[in-house]
Amino acid sequence: MFPSFRWLSHYSLQWAQLKNHNPFLDSCRFHHFNTKSTTLPPETPHNTPTVAIFWDLDNKPPNSIPPFEAAMKLKRAASSFGVVQHTVAYANRYAFSYVPQAVREQRKDRKLLNQLENKGVIKPVEPYVCKVCGRKFCNNEKMLNHFKQIHEREHQKRVNQIESARGKRRVNLVGKYAMKMQKYRNASREVLTPKTGYGLADELKRAGFWVGTVSNKPQAADVALKEHMVDVMDKKKAECVVLVSDDSDFVGVVKEAKSRCLKTVVVGNLEHGALKRIADAGFSWQEVLMGKAKKEAISVVEKWSDREILERLEWRFDPEKERDAYAAVDAFYNGTECSLNCAEAVNFAPADWIPHGGSEPSCIRCFCSVLVRKKSNVDSMAMDFQKLVSELSLAGFVVGLPLVIGQK
């Protein structure tokens, strides 16, 4: 027999009261504890450097492949050096209205193919499918007319409705039409031809780049890109700078980045250009598009890490430290007072020596004499001197024991 509902409600009420007094009961009810204790290794934090990409579109536009594909491959290659957080591209208005020769030839071939399909000379193997509503057409021009007459008008109505709304109604309309508008944008890239240019700015924005448009004055894009790079370096937003350009005007900015201990990478077609000679690493556009740059970047990062380790281990001459060290050695051997104060004497004395207090002296020579005076037992005195000699040897001093014992 099944229990009554009254009993179930009474049981659930008691369980809720117990759980409020002891929240641990909830985990005991639904989880089985294993008697074997398992210790997981602690996760080590990865100090991944941040990367900033600066693209000079006037000097290095993506003419060979579509802009979106070029931007994504560039970001994948730069991600081998760290986390890509800043992606910036600058160009003048002419660069965004310019249509490459390959795109013009492609549009010309498409126009000729539409004419042959309308005359019935060529029949498509598969029908053209509208990516918004799924309707099929026998030629491309009919699908284009359908797209413009129906879907383009519907999209424009939605845009006007959102722009005319205010407040909460506008927010609700944006959420309501978001999926439909995104579906229209994805389909329009393949069907409609941009009115100006070939959609360079829109494709780069879709890839996550911040696109800046400057005037058509000469060097306007270079000046804006330099200022943006310096601003990122001043605010310490990046530890690695990737510059896409062959323009030698950026030599000064690359040198400035290296002087601030930033890693510099240049992407350009000139193998022996001025930028690649100065930068820490350089790749060509072909290497980026083929994926070769992403593979080579791993070895470049390993070389950088090895170089940093060697620089930390490298001995550097410090005149202040060398003068103090030689003064302590001279005082130790000559039996004269050294010029070190208590704080500096601690660097050359053993760890158990009290550097300051009362009548206690504060130099190496006086420490040795006090140690000899205070120790009456020869064995303990020898052990203390052996400890002193080992400490001084580790500190870099050359100690002569007969001379030390003679100082009484």
Automatic annotation (TrEMBL):
Record keyword Transit peptide present: no
InterPro entries given in the database record: NYN (IPR021139), Znf_C2H2_sf (IPR036236), Znf_C2H2_type (IPR013087)
Leader sequence residues: none
GO molecular function, one term: zinc ion binding
Keywords tagged on the record: Metal-binding, Zinc, Zinc-finger
Residue ranges annotated for the C2H2-type domain, each copy included: 128-156
Protein name: C2H2-type domain-containing protein
Organism per entry: Linum tenue
